[in-house]
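We modelled the chain as a single entity of 135 amino acids. Its sequence is:
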Amino acid sequence: MANSNKDSLGNNILYTSSSGDTQKYLNRMKEVRRTQQESFGSKKIDINDFILSPEGWETAMFCIYFLLIPYVTGAVFLFLFIAHASVTNFFVLDFSAFFIVWTIGYETIAALLLISIFISYLNYMRKPSHKEVRK
């Protein structure tokens, strides 16, 4: 007598039906990914949208921003967290080490940007696709 879990070729029916369902699911998920508007990583970003500068001065302004913003951020970080928002303690700190203050600000900005990118990614994953999936 033949086993009820085997087909005429001797294959396990339970395995083939579940693997067939898995293959259908994988094909459906590929189709869903293809029909989505665009992926999070493939979005186009134009740097000129974020840099305020006169026409033709983008490079100079980018260099000024690159030096000034991390330094100011580092000074604010030192004022708030090291000097405990005390002006007298803040002026005791040595600001002659430009690179050290700049590095503190740079790392602070990098951490904040990574957190904001992660939050943006989570919001993107939560947002439903605008196109309906064809079955």
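As a brief sanity check on the tokenised model: The radius of gyration is 28 Å. The CA atoms of residues 54 and 61 lie 9 Å apart.
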